[in-house]
Amino acid sequence: MRKAIPALAILGLFLALGAWGAPAAETTDGAGHGGPVVPVLLGLIVILLAAKIGGELFERMGQPAVLGELVFGMTLGSLGLLGFGGLEFLKTSVGLEILAQLGVILLLFQVGLESNVGEMLSVGWSSLLVAVLGVIAPFFLGWGVSAWLLPGEETLAHIFIGATLCATSVGITARVLADLGKLSARESKIVLGAAVIDDVLGLVILSVVSGTIAASNSGGSLDTLDTLAIIGKAIAFLVGALLIGGWLSRRVFRLAGLLRVKGILLALALSACFLLSWIADRIGLATIVGAFAAGLILDGVEFRDLGEKTKHHIEELINPIGGFLVPVFFVLMGLRVDLSTFGQTSVLGFAALLSVAAVLGKMICAAGVLERGLDRLSVAVGMVPRGEVGLIFAGIGAQLTLHGRAVITPPVFAAVVVMVIVTTLVTPPALKITLARGDRKRGRVPETAPVPEPERPALPLG
Amino acid sequence: MRKAIPALAILGLFLALGAWGAPAAETTDGAGHGGPVVPVLLGLIVILLAAKIGGELFERMGQPAVLGELVFGMTLGSLGLLGFGGLEFLKTSVGLEILAQLGVILLLFQVGLESNVGEMLSVGWSSLLVAVLGVIAPFFLGWGVSAWLLPGEETLAHIFIGATLCATSVGITARVLADLGKLSARESKIVLGAAVIDDVLGLVILSVVSGTIAASNSGGSLDTLDTLAIIGKAIAFLVGALLIGGWLSRRVFRLAGLLRVKGILLALALSACFLLSWIADRIGLATIVGAFAAGLILDGVEFRDLGEKTKHHIEELINPIGGFLVPVFFVLMGLRVDLSTFGQTSVLGFAALLSVAAVLGKMICAAGVLERGLDRLSVAVGMVPRGEVGLIFAGIGAQLTLHGRAVITPPVFAAVVVMVIVTTLVTPPALKITLARGDRKRGRVPETAPVPEPERPALPLG
Fold first, then answer.
1. DSSP-assigned letter for residue A372
2. Which residues of chain B lie closer than 8 angstroms to A216, CB-CB?
3. Which tens digits make up the pLDDT trace of B17-47?
4. Tens of pLDDT along B426-450?
């Protein structure tokens, strides 16, 4: 109970800040003279504290922190429904939107830095097959659910909703496997390899769907040739960035090793990330495709020349910036969920069916495991969490318009957020159960004796 | 010559990016669909690369990197005068403006973290006297120069221009002293202590002038009682923040040590910085006053509880974020210098006289050194560089209006930038000369044998 007091005090601070800050955000000439940064400062305080309180509560419940950021964002966003409008400015601030977008670009840059092209190629056919099956099945299931329940929407909107179900969240799966001491298991390697390939496939699908929507808006139609052209462009961009970027960055970094000025490693890494993100946007792909490619490239660069000058790895420098900006994205995504849409039973039903499609769609991954003696169900369950990538896609869809209407409407956005939360919540307990079952079946002694927690009900997963 | 090729290639890249990016910044529905972040990405690439190239060139010339960022910003900004308008969007982007403002807030937070209240109090009367003399003299000299050469401006504008001449740049002085191996000399300690007190006095003057301008705009007048009230508010804020903030932050950080979630140290530090900046703005002070106070507070907090969880010091986490955002501020300040104003001889004359006032004003600091046997001229020369603080003040003045007219007009802004550049350029060679002279006079063997560089002409300093 004593621990609740600071939490309550901080919640009180939020409300006070909101009540005090709201007029400041609207009128530009109050007491202060700090210009457009002032409401952003207020927003950042609220967002950073909400992210950490939410993250802490969810970690204590054995759930990933990112879910807490999302749920606390939803809570803050729904204060408006309760008549407290002091935080409404968070939803429309251009400054926070830009910081959130920089956050998601840095997140994909970090994912790219952690992914290794060589390792991706070496995990072999099982990962590739698991990834491809795990992208195709949820894609068509999601498309089907959308076409069935939202007959009024256009085909491209259904396809976009299908696309939000594709990509597994590497971060969440890896975190759970690490917590269970299972990162070195063969099943884990397949899951992690597949999740990375998944990301790439998801980014390609996103590029195709976004490109088709752009073409459709300018009067064109859904043409197989155009679709192939966009797929080609996306693949050419990724391969080209890896080859040219890898060649070029080695040389640039070697030259940079000769420089005296401080902070050159950080500046070059960020410039490379922003440059590829910007080029990706210019050629019609999503910015995050470029950020991911930049991460892959810089993962391969050797920092030996710079190594003697800087005591830092590139990740060490990017992580604090990510730690600052990435929560802004997730809290803002939560803030934008319009909880009032759940008043419509149809939205709840859509969210439920979408979640079922997302979970069932990944169960087919079990068929992709070629090796014998492995626990296929664990691989499939490991592919279930969607986390950030689904959210990122939904966020992009909410900004795209098709014939003047948002591709991802507010109710659909809310349903996608529910799907992300359900798939992510379900995974940790389910994975504990299936991995323990697999160990028992083979008579292996589990490394860390993961006892299935009795207080959690077993989840009906396939 | 071979080294020039990559530099030329990068300059070419700038121009190409600008030419390609300019339409993207203006039309929102081009090929991309990345929203408002896309022009910001382009701006960040240009700014980060310009900052590092400029920094490198100036470091190789024995000058601080920050000058290079400023001068390269001016160069990029003047491309528009040569008919290349591709980078003009940098000057008006709200996103970049917000990032720059966050950068300067983080910079003052870093300065606060590096300053130690206990040390400030212990350097004694010499530092205090040096600081007070070094603030009063340039303030009135600047006021006088402005009143003489700009008879059309209002008194408050003259006072504001005087205020931009007050504060010594801790960073630049410390850097030069460290480079000369002189950080432990008694003269250096006086200069560094005085520079910190200087910052505080400068922030108080800024608060008073800004507050008076706000009062004047709402129909009030320059009243001694009001001025005293603002001085009282500024001092009460700093002292209150130190006392209450110090007491509260110790408890909050101890509680935070009990949390499991990652990144809590960074989130709390940033929240504290943003919260005090925001409060400062709300009560009519500049945001940077709050950021500086937050840094002073967190410098005193013991991280023993968190220390076992995190391997990082607070500075280590803030430095990469500062390394990303601080150059945005300086390059943007350079970009906003309208070089065409130098076409008017009156502006050049004003810049020259302002620079002389800035240098001469600090020479009186020599009288503040109470101890015998010290080289007083070195102390005075060490107080000359203005660097970031003068620029920050000028930037704030450019955003303030007095009876519908900017307090710092574009020609005055350009003159202040020249003053900052001159005072900063003059210091390193002058300090080398005076310190060596002082060593010779006392028959001391200089620690690192700083030979006065013959190729640099001796500067007529007092």
1. S
2. none
3. 555 544 444 333 344 556 788 999 999 999 9
4. 887 888 788 888 777 776 554 444 4
- Considering Cα of A179, then A184, then A188, then A193, what sign does the dihedral take? positive
Could you tell me the end-to-end alpha-carbon distance of chain B, in angstroms, rounded to an integer?
A: 41
pLDDT for residue A154 is more than 50: yes
CB pair distance less than 8 Å for B287 and A55: no
Q: Using the beta-carbon criterion (under 8 Å), do B35 and A399 form an inter-chain contact?
A: yes
CB within 8 Å: B56 and A324? no
pLDDT digits (tens, 9 = 90+) for B75-108: 888 887 787 777 888 888 899 999 998 998 998 8
Residue A94 and residue B97: Cβ atoms within 8 Å?
A: no
Gap between the Cα atoms of B334 and B332, Å rounded: 5
Half-sphere exposure of A60 (CA within 13 A, CB side): 9
Residue B405 pairs in a beta bridge with B402
For residue A114, give how far its alpha carbon lies from the nearest alpha carbon of chain B (Å): 18
Q: Of A158-167, A381-390, B132-141, which range is least confident?
A: A381-390
The tokens of B165 are what? 């001449």
Strands B405-406 and A405-406: unpaired
CA angle A322, A328, A333 (to 5 degrees): 125
Which chain A positions have a beta carbon within 8 Å of B320's beta carbon?
266, 316-321
CA distance B339 to chain A (A): 25
CB contact under 8 A, B97 and A37: yes
**Which residues of chain B are within 8 Å of residue A275 when distances are taken between CB atoms?**
41, 45
Distance in angstroms (rounded) separating the CA atoms of residues B165 and B383: 11
A34 and B274 within 8 Å at the Cβ level: the answer is no
Q: How confident is the model at residue A353 (pLDDT cuts 50, 70, 90)?
A: very high
Nearest to residue B42, comparing CAs of B70, B8, B14, B4? B14
- Cβ proximity of A190 and A122 under 8 Å: no
Contact between residue A339 and residue A413 where contact means Cβ atoms under 8 Å apart: no
The residue in chain B having the minimum alpha-carbon distance to the alpha carbon of residue A56 is B261
Alpha-carbon distance of B189 to B209, in angstroms, equals 30
Tell me the count of A-B CB pairs closer than 8 A: 218
Chain A closest CA to B46's CA: distance in Å? 8
Cβ–Cβ gap A52/B263 under 8 Å:
yes
Contact between chains at B31 and A283 (C-beta distance less than 8 A): yes
Least Cα separation, residue A34 to chain B (angstroms):
6
Instruction: Give which of A208, A278, A330, A400 to mutate to test B binding, by max B Cβ within 10 Å.
Output: A278
Does residue A231 contact residue A204 with C-beta atoms inside 8 Å?
Answer: yes
The DSSP symbol for B244 reads: I
Radius of gyration of chain A (CA): 22
Please count the helices (runs of H) and the strands (runs of E) in chain B. Answer: 20, 2
CB contact under 8 A, A35 and B97: yes
- For A157, phi then psi, to 5°, come to -65, -45
A155 by Cβ neighbours in 10 Å (0-12 / 13-18 / 19+) ranks as: middle
Tokens of A12: 């009180």
Q: Which helix (H) or strand (E) segment is A401 a member of?
A: strand A401-402
Task: Please give the mean pLDDT across all residues of chain A.
Answer: 78
ipTM of the complex: 0.78
Residue A405: enclosing H or E segment and its boundaries? strand A405-406
B380 Cα to chain A: minimum distance (Å):
28
- Among A198, A89, A164, which Cα is nearest to A407's? A164
- Helix ranges (DSSP H) in B312-446: 314-335, 345-363, 376-382, 387-399, 410-441
Q: What are A328's two structure tokens?
A: 């802004």
Specify the higher pLDDT residue, A234 or B318: B318
For residue B216, what are the contacts with CB-CB under 8 A and spacing of at least 6? B156, B222, B402, B403
- Closest by alpha carbon to A300, among A333, A272, A277? A272
